[in-house]
Amino acid sequence: MTGFSILVLAVFATLHAAPVPLDASTDTPAYTRALSPREGPPDPREISAREARLLIRTLDYVRSIKPKSPLTFAIVFDPENKVSSQEAERLAELLDAAPQSDKGKLEPLLIPLTNLNQSLKHIQVLYLTHGLKPFYTVISERAALYGLLTLSTDPSCVRANGCVLSIQTESGIDILINKKIMKRNRIDFEAAFQFAAQYL
C-alpha cells in the first residue's frame, strides 16, 4: 500500500465505524421533494450510503464553511434526466437520515436546473448529479458568485471546471480537486485533506 493510500484511509477512517441511522424524529423528510416517485430499477451509478457519508465527512475538512445548523446542502439536478433525478432524490434521502456533521445538521435542498437563477446566498454546499455536463459552465459560474463548495461523484465535473471536488469509491477512495475552481470559489481545505487529494 502506498503512502498516499494510507493517508487517504487515515483521513476517512471514522466513516466506516457505524452505518447511517434512520431518522425517526419526523414523519416527513427535511428536504424539499421536487421529484415524482422513482420508477424502475436504480441506475448502476446511483449514489451509495458510503459515498454520502464521505461527502458529509468532507465538509468537516473545509475551513471556509463555518458551523451552522441547519447547514443547507443543495443538490442541483436535471428534471428531464432520469439518472440525474434519481440520484438527487437518493442523496437527499441519505442526507436527511444521516447523523449531524461537525459543521451542523445538514438540510438537503433539491434545486432543478430551471430554478438555478434563484438566490443561493443561504446555501453552503452545491452537489451536482451525473448528467449535468452540458450545464457545467453556467452552474459553476453561479456557484462562484456565492463562493460555494461544489461537489460531485462524477469526476468529469472536476475535469471540466464544473466542480471544486469529486469523490469516487470504486477502487478505494479517490479525491479529485480542481485547484483553479477551488481558488476562484474561495474554498479552503484542511492540510490533511489536501494531502489526501489529487489536484488538477
Automatic annotation (TrEMBL):
- Keywords carried by this UniProt record: Signal
Disordered as annotated region, ranges: 26-47
| Cleavable signal peptide | 1-17
Q: What is this protein called?
A: DUF4154 domain-containing protein
